[in-house]
Amino acid sequence: MASDRASQAIQYDDPEKKSSFSTASLPKEKQDIPRGDAEVGDADVSVEENMPSTWLTRNRSLVRRVELFTLSAVILAWWISSIVLQATRHRWILQTILAWSFIAVIAFRFIPNSVVTRPVEAVWIPLVQRPFFTLPKYVRYGLGWLALVAIVMGSAFGFKTENV
What we know:
Elements: H1 2-13, H2 38-50, H3 55-58, H4 60-84, H5 92-107, H6 114-134, H7 137-157
Helix pairs in contact: 4-5
């Protein structure tokens, strides 16, 4: 029995006799089950394992942080130049919203959101949520409809029309 396993191991290690060897007696991890282009995939893995790792692959986290910081700096520089330049100053609201929203998205990859949510929760719940939900249901519905009508009327009649 032991000599049987030894001969199977020798056959398994020999690449020419690998095809005649049955893998049914081996554990699942050691079975060589072909999946499509397994030979090509195996060759790629062995080449990658033999290649020395580069500085970029070893320090991927640092590189990613530097990339995101650089992108934030470029967005901030674009925003400052768009505010300063006379030609684009009239679009400052849109540019400010876009620039700072992208900067916030990048920043919140590193800042936990509890930094913002806990203070907002500490103010919102006692000052807005509890008093609002102590009102009767139909009063809350009425306030919601009143807000909706105010938004519609404000957008329809609240802006000065311009003859363009």
